[in-house]
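Task: complex structure prediction.
Instruction: return structure tokens for all chains below.
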Amino acid sequence: MKIVKAEAIPFAIPYAKPLRFASGEVHTADHVLVRVHTDEGLTGTAEAPPRPYTYGETQESIVAVIDKIFAPQILGLSALEREAVHARLERTVGNPTAKAALDMALWDILGQAAGMPVSGLLGGYTDRMRVSHMVGFAPAEEMVAEAERVRDVYGITTFKVKVGRRPYTQDVQACLALRTALGPEVELYIDGNRGWTASESARALREMAGLGLTFAEELCPADDVLGRRWLVAQSPVPFIADESATRAAEVTRELLGGSATAISIKTARTGFTASQRVLHACEGLGVEVVMGNQIDGQIGTLCSVAFGAAHRTTARNAGELSNFLDMTDDLLAEPLAIENGTLRVREGAGLGIDLDTDKLARYRQDR
Ligand code: MUC
Ligand code: MG
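Output:
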């Protein structure tokens, strides 16, 4: 199972509905398709989404780091030598989505070689996850209309509401409008992408106290160290670290430092190998996790659900698995389908990623 080639293919697919949030906005899925090939003719596939406002990576930087540094470092190693692969990748700091995509492509190869689904190899807890949908910035009535449409069409009843605008009261109003329109059965939580100060966040949480929120995520920057601890200590709900805890060591630091009380796990940045490290750390420390979304396409979403469904702790909360619905197209031959508010893991060996080669030819940007 020797690695003979690692490819980084840039592609771009427009969004039908851009996602807007406090740290940025996404109009085009300008991602990188990562393919690792072995001497036995197996090909592992994953995708890396550039998020410069979160990790500093761009589409060009992901292609460059894979072509120039990572591919030459891992050629000749076996897909079974994942720890050796990671030791080489870790010689370069940062570049989390490039590393994660290579890791997941290797797991895809292992699954194919074993003739078993990756989700089963990871843990095999269940075959599906409940889906949480992200509602981006818009006037409150549009946010309500979107949530109602997503509930009615896909059966989704969990919503993560993007907050972090100024004045904070407009987000309080939007959350109130969502709760009023959707009723008490629907689960709502908020994500500020570091948009507010600690004091704005505290006021917003107090004013939303009657809305039955289940979590609050990254309302203010973790770099505001004491302010963030002060906020988290008074949060009435678990406070999720997302972009402030992108590696197992950061997870430990944020949790032990009192800057978070729950963790977002994103396979787009920690792949499967490091996501398990994060998950096991959280289980050991006794904090809740949520499967987050790096505004993934269908390939990334397939990876997220494979991981999330594999473990009891990740399958407990609804996973953020629906951002791909806002894209105009994707690369899978058989598109993902969310039914009754759930997304199923793909059956078959590996990750079950079957690419539509015509679509890849249409959207790839390197030819
Ligand atoms: C999220 O959960 O924050 C937006 C920025 C990012 O890093 O991820 C997305 C969604
Ligand atoms: Mg987040």
